[in-house]
Design a protein that fits this description.
Largest sheet: 9 strands, mixed
Mean pLDDT: 91
CATH architecture of the largest domain: Alpha-Beta Complex
Helix content: 40-55%
Shape: globular
């Protein structure tokens, strides 16, 4: 069995996928790279096959009809043979020294007959044109170099949260919890990193800046203008996060608090984008989103609506909306997200 399966979802990725793949090849035969060509119409398929031919012990090319990012990840989960599982998007890459340290840690766990459900590491926002690179670190909230549980974590700061880039899951856990991401939907990475958490019992944190998250392509799904165009998909994911998790069923108070804060961030982004669009139709959608939460879980609604962030994004009138957007822009600069 391989130590680690890495799925690389690719859609028309010919211009940048090589850099991503090359950064992962140093893992050698301990790793399998599953390059999923998600119905691309450029040379993505050829490049995937080229690497699979050149590195048959490491690389597998998977070709499928276009199903979106989530279905590419689903294909990777279904076909993974590694003990652990990681998603690396085709326009991102990994730091080689951090990568080798993570693999060494995984080897040590196997040798010592130990197992964890999730490995956490840091990621770096590689923002085009930015001289300052924001690093999402967790050394202030997570124990280092030891296996721990949710009860051992400290309180995350606002704006500090776990993304798909931060986590490696035990593959069997993803199968057991039945994770399946929706097809033809953007922003499913929030579901990927959120849904399995209640099944995670044992965790290890490796304090290295492993994942390099590129932000800057004009057609990138996290560009604000594109997110506004795809706001219905953002709302769909937001609602699925609410539906998938019954916060009252989570026994660890610290995990419940973290998941509530994570859901708060996603809901704030949905609301702000609806405000930023400037259309009456989207202001109605904002009201509908809050009503959805209220009807689904009244306690959750009160937690989100009357917390600091909830109050801030629901200030009345045009002036209130301007204040909400201003506060959001300040948060963007402080946190470094798009």
């Amino acid at each position: 069995m391989k130590l680690l399966s890495v799925v690389i979802p690719c859609y028309n990725s010919q211009d940048y996928m090589r850099y991503c793949i090359e950064s992962l090849l140093p893992g050698g035969e301990d790793v399998e790279l599953l390059i999923v060509n998600d119905g691309s119409v450029d040379k993505t398929a050829e490049i995937a096959d080229e690497y699979a031919t050149k590195y048959p012990a490491i690389v597998r090319a998977i070709h499928q009809e276009n199903g979106g990012h989530g279905e590419a990840v689903n294909a990777g989960i279904r076909q993974a043979t590694g003990l652990y599982f990681k998603v690396v998007d085709s326009d991102d890459w990994v730091d080689i020294r951090a990568y080798l340290k993570i693999l060494n840690t995984l080897k040590e766990l196997v040798v010592e007959s130990k197992s964890v459900d999730m490995i956490i590491s840091n990621f770096v926002y590689e923002k085009e044109g930015s001289t300052y690179k924001k690093v999402m670190k967790y050394d202030n909230v997570l124990p280092e170099g030891t296996i721990f549980t949710w009860d051992d974590i400290k309180q995350f700061r606002r704006g500090q949260y776990l993304l798909m880039h931060s986590v490696i899951y035990r593959t069997q856990l993803l199968w057991e919890c039945g994770l399946e991401l929706p097809k033809h939907t953007f922003y499913v990475d929030n579901l990927y990193v959120y849904t399995p958490f209640k099944h995670v019992k044992k965790i290890i944190y490796i304090n290295v800046d492993f994942y390099r998250y590129f932000i800057g392509r004009e057609d990138q799904s996290v560009q604000e203008s594109i997110m506004i165009k795809r706001i219905d998909q953002q709302i769909k994911v937001n609602k699925m996060m609410i539906d998938h998790i019954d916060l009252d069923s989570i026994t660890s108070p610290k995990l419940r608090n973290y998941m509530l804060r994570h859901l708060e961030i996603v809901t704030v982004v949905s609301a702000i984008l609806l405000i930023r669009s400037g259309t009456a139709e989207n202001l109605i959608k904002k009201k509908e989103l809050w009503n959805y939460i209220k009807n689904r879980d009244l306690e959750l609604y009160h937690d989100l609506r009357y917390g600091m962030m909830g109050r801030l994004i629901n200030l009345p009138g045009r002036a209130g909306r301007s204040v909400s957007v201003g506060a959001y822009k300040i948060t963007q600069k402080l946190v470094g997200f798009n």
